[in-house]
Design goal:
It contains 8 helices and 21 strands. By secondary structure, the chain is an alpha+beta fold. The protein has a single domain, classed as 4-Layer Sandwich (Anthranilate synthase), CATH 3.60.120.10. The structure holds the ligand C=C(O[C@@H]1C=C(C(=O)O)C=C[C@H]1O)C(=O)O. Belongs to the isochorismate synthase family.
């Protein structure tokens, strides 16, 4: 009996793919470089370890399906979390992280947390996946399950790297504001507005750090990088600032090598990178697991679509553990940052249609 499978829907697609490994379980890869030349679905944690290995699901069996309607369930979960306790823990973590920025150890660092919600008894992860597909047509939706990682669901707006043959694309994404539900015409309008009319200096600054990092890292790989002007990107009920980078990747360059250079970007980690990476692993009160790692089809039918695992949760029976984080700069304030993590977690809460008790 095999347990490793994934269901995923690429942004803007009307069908989803089911990929199953029929022989054995997902393969554990020792390093990013081992992704070079491979095919399948990649599931990578924030930091590779024995507990959270880098995984590749082999596409032994695949199926393309239409997203059917699943609107008959009104509420899929209920909430009885201790919000005061979560808030206190977040404040402690925030002070620890923020003081390091004030001391000058980091220019930027991302602080994350998690929160548990309870699914109703008769709810299956597949049903939540289909709801996510319907609510978020522009995001990457995936439900991944392996014995090593457990079961995760995501609705993420952030591309890590995608492309085929020599044509590749990545983004620098950061800055967050809640806007509520908007229709497709408002999405277009929002994208076309001058970012200086939409965003304050702190958010622009925060995103520039990510763009500078991506530009610099890509230059080590390829001489020709095409960088667009920063724009506003709508992600569910939130907006972010995005810079698109298009570049050529030589077939010998190796996607695994590129990933090693990029991951984790300052959108989920910090600057300087190695110091921030270590500080997060040593000091964040929760374990990130696969949150803020990356996922997606690798070299499948000739294309790669890897996304940063954000707006996600781990599903264990009825327990749904939601994850979110946000970039801190010296001017960050604890209440604003807390609300930002709440707003990001609401992406998954909407899929669960939570009833408060
Ligand atoms: C870290 C998350 O999101 C990332 C951090 C952002 C920010 O700090 O403003 C915005 C988008 C993402 O790049 C998350 O969703 O948990």
């Amino acid at each position: 009996m095999n347990n490793s499978f994934v269901m995923y829907r690429l942004p803007h697609e009307t069908t989803y793919t089911i990929m199953r490994q029929c022989d054995g379980e997902a393969e554990i890869l020792p390093s990013y470089a081992d992704l070079n030349g491979r095919t399948g679905f990649v599931f990578s944690p924030f930091m590779m370890s024995e507990k959270h290995p880098l995984l590749l699901i082999r596409p032994d069996e695949t199926e393309t399906c239409k997203i059917d309607d699943c609107s008959k369930h009104k509420s899929l979960a209920f909430s009885n979390r201790d919000i005061d306790k979560e808030h206190r823990q977040y404040k402690t973590d925030f002070n620890k992280f923020h003081s390091q920025i004030c001391k000058g150890t980091f220019r930027k660092i991302v602080l994350a947390r998690n929160s548990v919600e309870n699914a109703c008894e008769d709810i299956t992860p597949e049903l939540i996946f289909k709801r996510a597909c319907r609510i978020y047509p522009n995001e990457f939706i995936a439900l991944v399950s392996t014995p090593y990682s457990g079961t995760w669901l995501m609705a993420t707006p952030e591309t890590l790297v995608e492309g085929h043959e020599e044509e590749w694309h990545t983004v620098a994404l950061a800055g967050t504001k809640r806007i509520g539900i908007v229709d497709e015409s408002e999405v277009q309008k929002m994208q076309n507005r001058n970012i200086y009319d939409v965003w304050d200096e702190k958010n622009i600054h925060e995103q520039q750090y990510v763009a500078d990092y991506i530009r610099e890292r890509l230059r080590c790989f390829t001489p020709k990088v095409d960088e667009a002007k920063p724009q506003t990107l709508v992600a569910g009920q939130l907006i972010h600032i995005v810079t698109h980078f298009r570049f050529n990747l030589n077939a010998n360059a190796g996607i695994g090598n590129l990933i090693k250079t990029l991951h984790p970007t300052p959108a989920v980690c910090g600057l300087p990178k190695e110091e921030a990476y270590k500080f997060i692993l040593d000091n964040e009160s929760g374990d990130r697991g696969y949150y803020s790692g990356f996922s997606g089809p690798l070299n499948y039918e000739g294309s790669t679509h890897l996304f940063v695992t954000l707006r996600c949760m781990q599903i264990e029976g009825r327990c749904c553990k939601l994850y979110a984080g946000g970039g801190l700069l010296s001017e960050s304030e604890v209440e604003t940052e807390w609300l930002e993590t709440e707003a990001k977690m609401d992406t998954m809460r909407r899929c669960l249609a939570i009833r408060r008790i």
